[in-house]
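Chapter summary example: a protein plus phenylalanine.
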Amino acid sequence: MIATTGSDEAARQPGTNEGWSSRSAFILAAVGSAVGLGNMWRFPAEAGANGGGAFVLFYILCVVLIGLPVLLSETLIGRHGQASAPESVRRMAAESGKSRHWDALASIGVLGAFIVLSFYCVVGGWVLYYVGAFAQDLVTTGLTGGAFQGRPAEEVEALLPGLFGNGGLMVALQVVFLLITLYFVARGVSGGIEFVATWLMPAFFILFLAITVYGAFTGGFAEAVTYLFSFEPERLTGPVMLAAVGQAFFSLSLGVAGMITYGSYVGRDVNLAGTSTIIAGADTAVALIAGLCIFPIVFAAGLEPNAGPALMFQSLPRAFQDMPVGSLIGLLFFVMVFFAALTSSVSLLEAPTAWVKDKFEMSRVAATMCVSAGALLLGALAALSFNTLEAWHPLDGMSLFADMGVFDILDTVTSKVLMPIGAILTSIFVGWIASRRLIDAENGLNGGLHKFWLFLVRWLCPLALTAILLVGIFPSLTD
Ligand code: PHE
């Protein structure tokens, strides 16, 4: 049974750390962190590339049995410590009489957040590019007919390779996206991060539902439902399972200290089990609905569902060509994705910023600038790996990164190495190392659910995640 929360207002401990103004502000910010390109771009692409239903059902299982327990573990560490992620772990370890070096779990996470931030802004830049392309199209062709009228489908598909070929533009868009993120993080937790979440998340949900309902009427809906939810057990292979767990972690923003950091701004009276359930539920619902938003449009246009990462940036714009008022729908779609991406990138910047601020006793603005400068440089290398630096595969000597440019290396090192390690250590720390008294006081669970959660955190999460880590690093293990 989940214990009841106190008042809705989060009672902050004065003088400890910055904080959310209310429980609902925390929920919106955390849902904002979770809902992002992972849901809109990665989830439909992964589901499509991995055969639909089997992936989707296993994904849901991973969210419930692994994602949710780790999410609760991360937020409770943060809430207990009321400081940046590594400092929060250190405090909990010290109070439990354990080594302060457990803070490594959060340091790995902070590094992971920084790396994800750097390539996330590159993709954020692509989203901005499509916002611009559809806005321009709306101005030139108006509301009649589909998007990009009179232009052959190949030309619309060529927008993405066209952008990839222009390194300068890619870096410029990446920088714009990063600067917008920086602006809100520099303004602080309640003044900036919470502001973005409380305005953009409701706007996101309205656009999202409107486009999904509209897409459902353009045909292809029944086909999409069958595709996403028909379970064919023989399709549930090792690589599909691996893709599903990795996606669940990325989508819930786990393993990179982001949720520890957001948890550190939560008041003592908030029931973390309840809020974690809401956050994971909302994130999963958005991922599933994103599938029901994108696939009907793709099917109605007679396109293939397995285009992978190109699904959102190539198949969908092409599908908008056949859709009534396609330019407007396309514009609204990419504006909505931009909102989702921004509330996530803000959390990615916040985790390393909070650490730099604590560690070097810097002001928030200075800390934000330092982290952003680093992310800009690394991100620029990632952006240029699509063009100028295409042939540069710096880690060719390591089999995990063979033949990869910087963008793919950053993606792989975070999703296959840092995120699983961060999450394994988190579950071991909460399940075995930290004092039960501290954990029990924070987690908001009792009775059978408490026991079940403890079982998942102690056994299932570390074991399943270790298997995933090993298979991710040594793919030959599944042969
Ligand atoms: N969860 C975000 C998404 O789905 C990405 C993210 C990962 C954000 C890790 C913060 C931390 O897009």
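Key point: Residues 38 and 251 are 5 Å apart (CA to CA).
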